[in-house]
Amino acid sequence: MAATAPEPVFWDALGWQPSPAQRDQLIALQGLLQTWNQRVNLTRLVDGDDFWVGQVFDSLWPLAEELQSADKPLNWIDVGTGGGFPGLAIAIALPQARVTLLDSVGRKTTAVEAMASSLGLADRVRVRTERIETTGRDGSFRSSFDRAVARAVAAAPVVAEYLVPLLKPEGQALLYRGQWTDTDAVPFNKSLHLLKARLLDVQHRQLPSDRGTRHLLRVQPTAPCPRSYPRAVGMPSRDPLGG
Q1: How far separated are the first and last CA of the chain, in Å rounded?
Q2: pTM for this entry
Q3: DSSP string, 132-174
Q4: Which of 55, 103, 158, 232 has the fewest CB atoms within 10 Å of its CB?
């Protein structure tokens, strides 16, 4: 299916209007994703609303605060980027942002790096092939990001252990979730206590075209994250904090 732009009402629902250049980049991104997906199994969300709602809208709706100050030069990291989302959408929507895209699967990072280069983003986007537990203990990455995001990666306490160590003192972790309940919040808040962080806000949104409910958890450090986190590779998912 050819890459096409959505109707203007789509951008109204998002509350953000791309410039003509940004619109062209998003259309080009869809085409690149379709092409690469034939070679590497990146995602099933490549055509029509699957792409525009399931990828672009779902990546950008939580960023209302950041989109209103798009000229701010924030340093972002997208953990478990997979086929490049939300990281590539963020890099397009926020032209002053520097974005690190992290994934442990080399065939995916190869595709994502090629797409970023084709979109003219290579000067602001770097791609890293590594487990997040290793990156989070690396002094050149730890405590160095204004925003750390993860979408569809793992349970919330696990994702918190991945993201919080990466944050600057005033940084924020943005955890993209599907459903979220008070029951989910109990172990999550326990994990944040151990990580020296707190939950700032929980937002929710119905996606267009009956694509379901989404939630966003915004988290901020309260003190330096203990050096013991993240734990060794595999430990966060095997033994989640707050359990």
Answers
A1: 45
A2: 0.94
A3: HHHHHT-TTTTT-EEEEEEESSS-HHHHHHHHGGGEEEEEEEE
A4: 232
Q: Give every CB contact of residue 180 below 8 A, 6+ residues apart in sequence.
A: 202, 204, 215, 217
| Residue keyed to tokens 């993240």 | 230
Residue 133 φ/ψ region, left for φ over 0, alpha for ψ in the -120 to 50 degree band, beta for the rest: alpha
Question: Confidence class of residue 210 from pLDDT cuts 50, 70 and 90?
Answer: confident
Tokens standing for residue 24: 């062209």
pLDDT tens figures, 27-43 = 999 999 999 988 888 88
Residue type, 105: V
At the top level of CATH, which class does the domain 72-238 belong to? alpha beta
Query: Strands 197-206 and 75-79: what pairing?
Result: unpaired
